[in-house]
Amino acid sequence: MSRLTPSSLAVLSLALASLPACGQTTPLENSPLVGGDAEWPEAPIPQPGGNGAPGSESTGGDEGGASDSGDPGGDEWDGDPGDGDGDPGSGDGDGDGDGDGDGDGDTLFDCISPEDPGACGVEPMICEAFPWTDGLGEPPPMTPACCVDDDCGCVDGLCTSAACTADGFCDCNCQLDEDPDCAVDSCAMPGHAAEPPDAACPDSLDPVVLYMSNDDSNSQASPTFVRRLVADNMVVPAARVRVHEFLNYYDLSYGNTTTDLLDVGVQMRRTKAETGEFTLLLYAQGQHLDPKDRPPFNLVYTLDMSGSMSGEPIELLIDTVTATAGQLRAGDKISLLGWDTEQSILLDGYQVTGPNDPVLMNAIGQIAAGGGTNLHDGLVTGYALANQHYIKGGINRVFLVSDGGANAGITDIDLIAAEASDSNGEGIYLIGVGVSEASGYNDELMDDVTDAGKGAYLFVDSAAEAERMFGDPERFLANTTIAARDVQMELTMP
């Protein structure tokens, strides 16, 4: 059963990206446009042999990249012995015809200089490949060597050693399956990994239907608990970051509905222009209520006074109840129940005379930590007090203020859920307030009991936070009242 509080928001955020039609290849970033008057841009890197006219013997063009004499790059030779025809003579002085002067008849290999000199040449005794990226277009059949790698022996764009060879080193700059030293899937260029056909196509063409049910429409503990974890230099577990609670905690500045009890709206905003991604927001918001128009309160505070609450936790508990005292008016009923292994009823359905009632403030001053833990009896007694002083048409709530240092059994969860039943629309909801240092706090327990109790879940990490949540009239009212039940949203995407 879900519910929505006045002045609170329930938001569903979806990232929607512009996808190509089924079977259409997604264009690479910075690649030329497809169709229309688009032109290929000039090559982003210097081309071996230059960019001359196709077919030239001397300019290294598209079809004449090597001269008829066998020299790479279109260098002009005079046909003398040693110029590439294999005859002994004067070309490079070694008579092997390859033009490199070492007499072994080997070939020279292309290389490219990277913008980042540290991108390659880091592995000693290995000629590494140039790190080809998608922005450079289609790679050549053989990945060029890296000009700045001294192990490649490169001069003027040509090297005596090739990259991506069987040299005992897996070079991840090589193209997929090019380096024999790389095992299957050990590494490959991400930009050129084969994509499954029709990757953007769903398995079914049936509409996608998403549902949102606001079981936690007023829980707001996650932001302050995460803040406390960070302040205490602790690692934040992923499970403790509940996005919906962040959305509930912060004011998203939607206009307040004034005539309707509930406002539901939709907004869509571009969030990533470069990828065509949009974020769709669905929100539901209760009507703004004036605190002076609220029904009377019947509030039962069941307070954890066990030994684990000593120090800062018990001080935060006192700050929380004290902040609440300032929001009361004549006729509101307050019960204070302290529990450890024993139950201590400090106030039993006391009707206050107004804000900061002296009798209430004196009872708050008696709160102290010590003893063991008995959550079950604290809950049973707390609900008994709430039912005993129940106000028809009023706001009847049980506040559980604890560090979560106890175990809630199945019986406890069933009790909480039964008391929060909405069968008559006037259930007694449980509001959980966590007070603790980060290291000793049981967030999971408090989240579980407030889920069953259908009330707000809050975490107080400072006196200022207690004042923010309970000392502000509108915030306190939003944390304790209900605007709608069974709030659900359905989104159908064709």
From TrEMBL:
<dbReference type="Pfam" id="PF00092">
    <property type="entry name" value="VWA"/>
</dbReference>
<protein>
    <submittedName>
        <fullName>von Willebrand factor type A domain protein</fullName>
    </submittedName>
</protein>
<dbReference type="InterPro" id="IPR036465">
    <property type="entry name" value="vWFA_dom_sf"/>
</dbReference>
<feature type="domain" description="VWFA">
    <location>
        <begin position="298"/>
        <end position="480"/>
    </location>
</feature>
<feature type="region of interest" description="Disordered">
    <location>
        <begin position="22"/>
        <end position="114"/>
    </location>
</feature>
<feature type="compositionally biased region" description="Acidic residues">
    <location>
        <begin position="93"/>
        <end position="107"/>
    </location>
</feature>
<dbReference type="InterPro" id="IPR002035">
    <property type="entry name" value="VWF_A"/>
</dbReference>
<keyword id="KW-0732">Signal</keyword>
<feature type="compositionally biased region" description="Acidic residues">
    <location>
        <begin position="73"/>
        <end position="86"/>
    </location>
</feature>
<feature type="signal peptide">
    <location>
        <begin position="1"/>
        <end position="23"/>
    </location>
</feature>
